[in-house]
Design a protein that fits this description.
25 strands, globular, alpha/beta, single chain, 651 residues, eight-stranded parallel barrel, six-stranded antiparallel beta sheet, binds alpha-D-glucopyranose, 25 helices
């Protein structure tokens, strides 16, 4: 089929046009053909997104042309070895949906000391079965407080404390050899106040002032504030900061030293496209689009999830498909359940924006059901969650380096007879350890008295009760906490999508209260769950009878079971099942090789469910895949406390 755009692209590719000619001249004819074919395939998505945002600008035709020249140049510069990688990935564009994919998330310095140290520990990851590694911010950051690296001063330099660009290239080559994909953060909502763009803006350079949202007086900031929430109400109240040097109010959604970028300015778009290609050429496979929900501002709204966010992502995504098809995007949009699906694409943008997005709702519901021992809210919330396009995946997780915000939808809560507000309050109380009988040891993060919002910091094992049980020398409690942790991970590994193991959870590492001793960390208690890897503890995974061995081995077993279960492919739908027991959570994954029914017990009592659930789905001869054993189909099947079962038809 020929699209009208084809002709335009052919015209632009005419070798007599000098700028194109120059960019593509050094390539072989077949390489030029790859580029042209991809350009023709994705130019529609590219221009659709790009013109939705910048189409009204004067000189738009010149911008379009500039964009195409940039793509040709980036393609010509793409290292040969990565072009081969692109070709291989093009044969399997659904690679990230495969049940073989298992992710691990760590800070380079906390995991390995530096990039070389990370390289030295790759056997540990391979032993677990990990083939996707998210190394948290490692680009050059401000020296002072830097929000864990999310205040970048140079997107083309590595933080000298962890290495340099050569070390990154070396690491990414080793990872590729092992079949491990590398994920890095792309902080696109803001830069550090010390980034050269901000430095120039502070020095009143109008070109760079236009990179930011700067205001001479409080009129507009006050107008925006009326509908803006606060992300860090304790540490950084308000969304604007007075900058004395420039004599302007600057938009700073997060900390005062993180300056929000102005994406209405196409120069910002071009800057980031070039940064993406620069880092992709160093071997990055997945870009985590940090705080993407915030990049577009609109008066009278909460300035999150605006339609332009998705148009911009679509344009960036199409550009990357043309130049570097091995690369995918992951949206870090920690937003309400109803806003989430748009990050994977709804309507015309389905499958054209990010390939991956954090399943924040699943994470919240796991902790909610563990606290209440009741799965009705979870069943409701996950049933009504808008569906994702089949070509995309969730990234599923139990914990990450951030706090947990209780993204419980009021309507979902009401549908199961709960008050959303009261339930959120309960969850904060429970995980802060205030609620009578709570086993959790979390810390309240950024309490907001205006909204009653209290988010929670804490390591998974501490939130699951292990810290308290160990302190009390309570062997039963230790056992139950480990089962809670494994239950959470079983759901993360079995729900659908790329599961992410957060560093230390594989060893049930606890809260690290020493964070208060570290310069710049005292005021941010998220550091309580960002420990340094304890390699002595890791070594105990090999010693029989240790807690570490118990957790690590059980997790490894789950990973192996996942890898041999085709139903867990992310493209397979998830049908959340209603069933007769409010302590159990169940879903079916229909698949050409036969269905899988997964059942999870969220209580510390044995729980039963009707065998009818399996029969209805056509499983008459059940086989449990985690423990790898046949199960007798009875009227009522039983799960021990916190047990999980992945059931398929035997044979
Ligand atoms: C993301 C990061 C978080 C950071 C914020 C601002 O949400 O995960 O750690 O504080 O962005 O960059």
């Amino acid at each position: 089929m020929s699209y009208p755009l084809d002709r335009e692209v052919d015209h632009l590719l005419n070798p007599h046009r000098s700028d194109w000619g120059k960019a593509l001249a050094g390539l072989q004819a077949c390489e030029q053909d790859w580029f042209t074919a991809r350009l023709k395939r994705f130019a529609g998505d590219l221009f659709d997104g790009f013109s939705a945002v910048y189409g009204e600008r004067a000189g738009f035709q010149a911008l379009r042309h500039r964009l195409l020249v940039l793509l040709a140049g980036a393609f010509a510069d793409r290292p040969k070895v990565l072009r081969k990688h692109d070709l291989e990935r093009s044969m399997r564009p659904d690679w990230f949906q495969d049940p073989h994919i298992v992710g691990y998330v760590a800070y380079a310095d906390r995991f390995g000391g530096d990039l070389k140290g990370v390289r030295d520990h790759l056997d540990y990851l391979s032993e677990m079965g990990v083939n996707y590694l998210h190394l948290m911010p490692l680009l050059k950051t401000r020296e002072d407080e830097n929000d864990g690296g999310y205040a970048v001063t140079d997107y083309r330099e590595i933080d000298p404390a962890v290495g340099d660009l050569r070390a990154l290239e070396g690491l990414s080559a080793s990872l590729r050899q092992r079949g491990i994909s590398l994920c890095l953060d792309l902080v696109i909502n803001h830069v550090a106040r010390e980034h050269p763009w901000a430095v120039a803006a502070r020095a009143r350079d109008p070109r760079y002032q236009a990179y930011f949202h700067m205001f001479e007086d409080r009129v507009l900031p006050d107008a925006y504030e009326r509908s803006l929430p606060e992300v860090f109400p304790e540490a950084a109240p308000g969304n604007f900061t007075w900058d004395r040097m420039s004599g302007r109010w600057v938009w700073t959604t997060f900390n005062s030293y993180q300056w929000d970028l102005n994406w209405t300015n196409p120069e910002v778009f071009f800057e980031f496209l070039e940064i993406i290609f620069f880092l992709a050429a160093k071997g990055v496979d997945i870009f985590r689009l940090d705080a993407i929900a915030f990049i577009w501002k609109r008066l009278g709204t909460d300035c999150q999830n605006q339609p332009e966010v998705h148009a911009i992502t679509q344009a960036l995504r199409a550009a990357v498909r043309i130049v570097a098809p091995a690369v995918v995007f992951k949206a870090e949009a920690i937003v309400g359940p109803q806003q989430l699906a748009a990050y994977l694409g709804v309507g015309d943008r389905a499958g054209k924006v990010s390939d991956l997005a954090y399943h924040n709702s699943l994470m919240v519901q796991i902790w909610s059901s563990l606290a209440s021992r009741d799965t009705r809210l979870m069943t409701q919330a996950l049933r009504v969650l808008p569906k994702k396009p089949p070509s995309t995946s969730w990234t599923t997780y139990l914990r990450c380096h951030d706090d947990i915000g209780w993204a419980i939808d009021d309507q979902d809560a009401a549908a199961v007879g709960l008050s959303g507000e009261a339930h959120r309050r309960f969850l904060s109380d429970y995980y802060a350890g205030f609620f009578p009988g709570s086993h959790a040891r979390g810390l309240v993060f950024q309490e907001n008295p205006k909204t009653g919002d209290r988010r929670i910091s804490g390591a998974a094992a501490s939130l699951a009760g292990l810290e308290l049980a160990l302190e009390r020398d309570d062997a039963v409690g230790v056992g139950l906490s480990i089962e809670r942790l494994l239950l959470g991970y079983a759901l993360v590994l079995g729900f659908g999508g790329v599961p992410l193991i957060y560093m230390g959870d594989e060893l049930a590492m606890l809260n690290d209260y020493d964070f208060v001793k570290e310069e710049g960390h005292q005021a941010d208690n998220r550091w309580v769950h960002r420990p340094r890897m304890d390699w002595a503890k890791a070594a105990r995974r090999l010693k029989k009878g240790t807690l570490e061995q118990r957790v690590f081995t059980a997790l490894k077993r789950l990973i192996q079971a996942r890898k041999s279960t085709p139903q867990l492919c992310a493209a397979t739908p998830v049908w959340v099942e209603g069933q007769d027991n409010p302590h159990l959570f169940a879903y079916t994954r229909p698949h050409p090789t036969g269905p899988l029914v997964a059942v999870y017990n969220f209580s510390e009592e044995p729980q039963g469910f009707s065998g009818d659930l399996l029969l209805r789905r056509g499983i008459t001869n059940p086989f449990e895949r985690i423990e790898s054993r046949a199960i007798a189909l009875e009227d009522r099947l039983w799960l021990p406390p916190y047990a999980r079962m992945w059931l398929t038809h035997a044979g």
